[in-house]
Amino acid sequence: MTGDVTIWTNPRCSKCRGAEALLTDAGVNVERIRYLDDPPSRDEIVRVLALTGETDPRTMMRTSEPLYRELNLAQATASELLDAMSQNPILIERPIVIRKDQAVIARPPELLLKLL
Questions:
Q1: Would you say residue 20 lies in a domain?
Q2: What is the CATH number of the domain that holds 101?
Q3: What angle, rounded to 10 degrees, do the helices at 78-87 and 42-52 form?
């Protein structure tokens, strides 16, 4: 199955490797974006958040990441959270799988199966 699937991935992350394996096993052609090396713009983060069906940027954030606490983001506005993710991609949850007009935060990786 060919696909127009994009994954925001970190090769050191076991969940990302698991998601990529599921996609490979399904025969999906995947565009891999190493988001720490090639961070998405704020506009792209906003677009993908909308594709997940969520409105709270925290759903796409690694709130247990030490930087989240260091930047005092617990009380931040949605706009401030989006700025923080675009400036500090380590704050973006991973993996995020995008297909057409849908996206899913694949934690656990099996959540991506609903996109296929």
A1: yes
A2: 3.40.30.10
A3: 120
Tell whether omega for the bond before 40 is within 30 degrees of 0, i.e. cis: no
Catalytic residues: 13
CB 111 within 8 Å of CB 105: yes
Q: Pairing between strand 96-99 and 102-105?
A: antiparallel
Domain that holds residue 20: 5-108
Q: Is residue 100 part of a domain?
A: yes
As given in the structure block, the two tokens for residue 26 are: 């399904």
d(CA 16, CA 70) in angstroms, rounded, equals 25
Written as six digits, the tokens of 12 are 């050191």
Convert the pLDDT of each residue in 54-89 to its tens digit: 999 999 999 999 999 999 999 999 999 999 999 999
Q: Output the CA torsion sign for 51, 87, 90, 72.
A: negative
